[in-house]
Structures are given as structure tokens and as C-alpha cells.
Design goal:
By secondary structure, the protein is an alpha+beta fold. It has a domain of about 60 residues: Alpha-Beta Plaits (2-Layer Sandwich). Helices cover about 15% and strands about 15% of the residues. The protein contains three helices and four strands, in the order αβαββαβ. The longest helix has 5 residues. The two termini are about 25 Å apart. About 15% of the residues are buried. The chain binds iron/sulfur cluster (2 copies). The site of one iron/sulfur cluster has 13 residues, from helix 2.
Length: about 110
């Protein structure tokens, strides 16, 4: 049996819509960032690098070819609210794993 109704299925974002597919438009506030590196670890595009040492250790969006797809995972997981993405996803939506199983609600962090 399906976990989602047809109405809920219609609310699933369309990933080929440019509004949801902007890349590399991410602001990291280095006043707030402490360089913990969690965002870099979970970034599916490996688009975040941690540079510097000690107090100067900060997260940076990779500059040469940022493979950021604005998934907002980094903004969601940063405990210091240091990341702002240009396109803010509504995390109340449902997500699907491509061609793998049923639609499911995102799990809370
Ligand atoms: S999770 Fe937040 S505080 Fe940690 S490195 Fe990333 S932006 Fe900085
Ligand atoms: S929005 Fe997603 S893809 Fe872009 S830097 Fe953050 S975690 Fe990586």
C-alpha cells in the first residue's frame, strides 16, 4: 500500500524546475561558522570545504566548480545557523529516492 495520497504526491517538488535547481548560491556567515565541518561531511555534492586552522577554520563553498544543487542539507544541519541558501526548501515536503522504494517523509535530524 502507498504511504502517500495522490494529493500529497502532487506536492513533491519538481527537480527539473530551475527555481529548485540553482547551484552555488549559498552564503556562509563566517562570524557564526566555527568550522565544525558537519556541513562538509553531509553535503551530497561535496561542494563545501573547510579551510584554515584554529579560530580561522571556516566552511567555504568550493569556488572552481561548485556542485551545489541547493538541497539545503547544510543549512538544515548547521547548529549555528551559519548557512543561508538562495532557495529555501520547505522541509515539510516529501522527498523520494530516485527509483528506490516508496516516497517517505524526511527524517528529523
Ligand atoms: S555546520 Fe555550520 S558551523 Fe559547522 S562548518 Fe558548517 S557552516 Fe560552519
Ligand atoms: S545546499 Fe546541499 S549541495 Fe549545496 S552546499 Fe549545501 S549540502 Fe551541499
Amino acid at each position: 500500500m502507498s504511504l502517500l495520497s495522490w494529493r500529497e504526491r502532487l506536492t513533491i517538488p519538481t527537480y527539473d524546475n530551475e527555481e529548485y535547481a540553482t547551484t552555488g548560491r549559498l552564503f556562509i556567515d563566517h562570524e557564526l561558522c566555527n568550522g565544525c565541518g558537519v556541513c562538509a561531511q553531509i553535503c551530497p555534492g561535496k561542494a563545501i570545504e573547510i579551510r584554515g586552522e584554529g579560530r580561522e577554520k571556516k566552511a567555504y563553498l568550493e569556488e572552481v566548480f561548485p556542485q551545489c544543487m541547493s538541497c539545503n542539507d547544510c543549512a538544515a544541519i548547521c547548529e549555528r545557523d551559519a548557512v543561508t541558501a538562495a532557495v529555501a526548501y520547505d522541509f515539510g515536503y516529501y522527498f523520494k529516492k530516485l527509483n528506490r522504494g516508496e516516497f517517505r517523509k524526511p527524517v528529523p535530524y
